[in-house]
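Complex 340.
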Amino acid sequence: MSDGPISPHAGTHVPVLAEEVIHALAPVAGAVMVDGTYGGGGYARAALAVANFTLIAIDRDPEAMERAWAHAGKDPRVIPAAGRFGEIEQILHAMSRDQVDGIMLDLGVSSFQIDEAERGFSFMRDGPLDMRMEKRGPSAADAVNHLTEGELADIIHILGEEHAARRIARELVHRRRSQPFTTTLDLADVVEKALGGRRGKPTHPATRTFQALRMWVNDESGELVRALAAAERVLKPGGRLVIVTFHSIEDRIVKLFLRSRSGNDPGVSRHLPKMAKGKAPTFEVLQRKAIEPSEAETASNPRARSARLRWALRTEAPAWNVDADDGFRLPGLKQLEGVA
Ligand SMILES: C[S@@+](CC[C@H](N)C(=O)[O-])C[C@H]1O[C@@H](n2cnc3c(N)ncnc32)[C@H](O)[C@@H]1O
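Predicted structure with S-adenosylmethionine bound:
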């Protein structure tokens, strides 16, 4: 999800493509489903309204987990489990569960996170340059103040898809020599100046740089790749994997993974998984094209603009061995360039 004008729904999170997600997840009575990105619980509530099943609510953000616990207090079908969806297998194992009937992921950040200046995700609100969903580990300020100019340029170019990444990185490194970055608006200001101002563009010039730093700080692509490989191992035959992305790199990672695992890999990427000879498909993709929000949804919720939904059914075939040469491995930053 990208930043944008201050939301008219401040203090809430309007779920994107919720109806389509619940349709794809198709929860049934007695099932065990995982919401790997609980956030504000929008998907969780919508799904629990249509069937009587157990929902494991995962989020890496402690504030989202407080909401999940409050939800669990009102609905015993909700089981909160703090952590990262990339570690879904370990989380389930710790709960003495190995297999589930469905997994839904709604990537990126929630409006709660964007709207709270203290979290440092937004270039529209002044706050500490933080961006850590988990509230631990290196922050965006650490990245901007300590990575090399080349590293910053790569991150901004590849994860932000920003053409002027080198110019921005040069300016950041030049400025931090006299005064390290500590706040969001300071960073937004320096990026804007590096790009020569707004030039009448509708989006803020710092949009792509902020997105790139957020993705790097939270290792968002790495988390997605780990979650896909884990989903293959923990979904029961007939289980459903439902993913909403907001970034072209992430949509492409999901698309290439599902192509490879459903036996439809035309070998388009040098970097991402290839279909191994003799391996049985582990997923069935019924709808090849990504589902996009309707015009009505994007009109009422501009955050939905870049959303893409893909889903698939787990087959009975055994999971592929990810350590083998034909596995789906974590692409490095440079390799992600190849899938953008
Ligand atoms: C777009 S919001 C989800 C909103 C939710 N579907 C709803 O309807 O309210 C994304 C959420 O995923 C969480 N998140 C992002 N990456 C995560 C990860 N790797 N593991 C667990 N949670 C993650 C964020 O903290 C955020 O709360």
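Residues 1, 13, 15, 36-37, 39-43, 58-61, 64, 84-86, 106, 108-110, 133, 223 surround S-adenosylmethionine (CB under 6 Å).
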